Amino acid sequence: MSEQDTQQAPESPQQAEAAAYDVRAVQDKWLPVWERLDPFRADDDSPREKKYALTMFPYPSGDLHMGHAEVTALHDVIARYWWQRGYEVMNPMGWDSFGLPAENAAIKNDEHPATYTYANIETQYESFKRYGISFDWSRRLHTSDPEYYRWTQWLFLKFRERGLAYRKSSPVNWCPNDQTVLANEQVVDGRCERCGAEVTKRELTQWYFKITDYAQELLDCLDDLEPTWPARVVTAQRNWIGRSEGAHVDFAVEGRADPITVYTTRPDTIFGTTFMVVAVDSALADDLVTDGQRAAFEAYREEIRKETEIERLATDRPKTGVDLGVTATNPVTGAQIPVWATDYVLADYGTGAVMGVPGGDQRDWEFATEMGLPIVRTTQTPDGFEGEAFHGEGPAINSPAPGVDSPLDINGLAVDEAKRATIAFLEQQGSGEGAVNFRLRDWLLSRQRYWGVPIPIIHCDACGEVAVPYDQLPLELPELRGADLKPKGVSPLAAASDWVDVACPTCGGPAKRDSDTMDTFVDSSWYFLRFCSPRYEDGPFDPELAKKWMPADIYVGGVEHAVLHLLYARFFTKVLRDMGMLEVDEPFASQLNQGIVINQGRKMSKSLGNGVSLGDQLAEFGVDAVRLTLVFAGPPEDDIDWADMSPAGSLRFLQRAWRLSGDVTSPVGAAPADGDIALRRVTARTVHDAAEMIESYRFNVMVARVMELVNATRKAIDSGAGPDDPAVREATEAVAVLLSLVAPYVAEEMWERLGHEPTVARAGWPEVDPALLVEESVTAVVQIQGKVRARLDVAPDISDANLEQQALADPAVVRAIDGRPVRKVIVRAPKLVNVVV
RNA sequence: GCGCCCGUAGCCCAACAGGCAGAGGCACCAGGUUUAGGUCCUGGCCAGUGCGAGUUCGACUCUCGCCGGGCGCACCA
């Protein structure tokens, strides 16, 4: 920047002005003008067709960084394109402003989390404005504002009324560092998604959203999203939901009223069941164990509880378990089989109990081998099979085994048939039924933290759980700060007795508020709906306006939310639809996942010392050049290595484009039809292609096309049609409009120099005369044996026969054929002729 | 272990639906301009598409197998 200034000092300001524009001065000039014109305010009453452009709202930690710069630059290309194409565009922005970093900062600095949060929000707000993204700031929201979280609480209570929010005791994921529980989605490879600490299990009573009620629909709708959502997100969600089909089977236990029910995807292997395994941390195991085995069982359970998730999930360690001392009855053979407890069965999947079929399941095989339990194969293995358990296709064998008496016989049946026959038998006998299971668990939403939405529930000894009355919402957080917020295993709110101790709204007796707060993913599960009517007072959003704006036409953001935010937001949308408040089934019609900005082949990090400061880059090259660099770097989904990029080169290009606007001498409104036809064709082609590129998210190619147009226009001015040709004006105006999607400042400056009023952002997409897109002649290639031997200039509508005749008459072709007999001629008019000799 | 994606000039990246491998940029070189090793203008340089097969008149593009890189899932019965 300072370099720019010193370069302008020389004797002739005129000359300096002609060579380069002052990046900072241009930014300072236009920012207040845009502020005044407010060109991106979405009008709820506009008759124009709507577009809703959404980008993931940030968490306010410090100032904006390169990642924010990339995602918003890409997003803004689309939003600004839609404005230019004449849509009414809603492009809102806000902050996901509850969360742990603010709380940690508050403890460290002995202050209130709001101090950190709102200071950062202001910083980011100012940065966003200067960065020139076309946000409609009139819709700004913060999830930590009581006006916002009032409705988060309202939604929680409505969900609860529908049976979709409930409390249960269960072993939950616990982050020992953050001192809070985590949802399954927030545990990555056995570690806390946020801080990386190894997650352990704890038995706690917590609030859950019953997202599993929507498992099937969440899965089914992915088919509709497949064409417009990134494949990896769709796949990730399918895997996460994890639907499987199988059966529930009851194994009777002598002396116990209830049988042990298992879930299996392979009911056809039931004859190979030589033992049962129950999750060691389940209530079922505790209930089944005999007095004689209790001591051993409890010792084993203690050992397991001390393990971290990482240890527990390791697949290569030996199987462990303890015999519970009871036996169960195989419903098809009547055989008595031992029941064991183990940690390789999960308490919260299926029924927490599994029939052990070592012949068909590798885990069971290992367990049987370890414990000396019998192994029976029930599926014929292929010739030469040398593995252990076999779970492939093959006819059923030993079902029943010779000499075993059973009312069911599935020997010889293929796997699918055997499954069907077994389920039919079990259903008829009343000892089982076909069943579907999902990997997806209910969403644990309680958090033992302060800086979040208080759960609006009061616990009364007499009345139980009582909802905070709607007219008392928002239930605001008590004022806590600094050391009050230190993690102590229970929510900091629990210690705020003034706040916690209340009269029961129902009976008036002494009661306590629920002291947990909600997972911040609850806040972000509906913010895109609030944007439709951000000041609405009668509900979380105005259903009429949601009807107008929803769904979001594009959602741009990071792929790290593939199964977190994106799944939760879909769930909320479906529930709100079922509540009659929304008409859409899905919130986001299409999606774009940008890559990340790295440096020197590595993720930017403090420890590597390879961080790139957005502020420094903006100061050195200006907003436009940084935005252009990010958009031009490559396909949006790809990571950008900043070390490979050249923001200086981007700035040079922008200077070249800008210079065009000073060279144009024809008047505003000069009839383009009188202009140079060759340049007009290039302009038309560029505008046409640019639209296509944007709509297929190939923004880097769009920029390359604009560069070509700039080059062509330069040539026309210097050595062609000349600066007064109307086609030069037409081309330069097109450059300004196209550049307005990426480099708003220089585009505005060009627009003014071309004699127009601001703002170029709303100038409208250039008109393209379709006649200019039709080539007057094309080059046809003549190949001999697939090698190019000649080129012909031909009419675009030349016939196959005509082209073939011309090709074979061409001297170069005749020479190449060299008298050999022509065996075959392939003609693809007007582009190609291939002669086979 | 299973699944998905990607390998094109020194570097970042293009190539519609199989049909001329290069659109654009960076870097580099040369000439012009210049007080100028900068800016600007002009021109140049640079790969036969990771490897090996197959299909085809024709393969960067389709199929199969390797090699290399990335991502996702992973004791879910």
Summarize the structure.
The chain has 837 residues and is an alpha+beta fold. Helix content is 38%, strand content 17%. The chain binds one RNA strand of 77 nucleotides through helix 10, strand 9, strand 13, helix 14 and strand 26.
Task: Please give the structural blueprint.
Blueprint: H1 2-8, H2 13-19, H3 23-37, E1 50-55, H4 66-84, E2 88-90, H5 100-109, H6 113-131, H7 146-161, E3 165-175, E4 180-182, E5 187-188, E6 191-192, E7 200-209, H8 215-220, H9 222-225, H10 231-241, E8 243-253, E9 260-264, E10 275-279, H11 283-288, H12 291-306, H13 309-313, E11 321-329, E12 336-342, E13 353-356, H14 362-371, H15 415-429, E14 432-438, E15 443-444, E16 446-447, E17 457-460, E18 464-467, H16 497-500, E19 501-503, E20 510-513, E21 517-518, H17 520-523, H18 527-530, H19 543-549, E22 554-557, H20 565-578, E23 591-593, E24 597-599, E25 602-603, H21 614-632, E26 640-641, H22 647-663, H23 677-695, H24 699-719, H25 726-739, H26 744-753, E27 778-784, E28 787-794, H27 800-809, H28 811-817, E29 824-828, E30 832-836
Parallel strand pairs: 1-2, 1-22, 10-12, 22-23, 24-26, 27-30
Antiparallel strand pairs: 3-4, 3-7, 5-6, 7-15, 8-9, 8-11, 8-14, 10-13, 11-12, 16-21, 17-18, 17-20, 19-20, 24-25, 27-28, 29-30
This protein binds one RNA strand of 77 nucleotides through helix 10, strand 9, strand 13, helix 14 and strand 26.
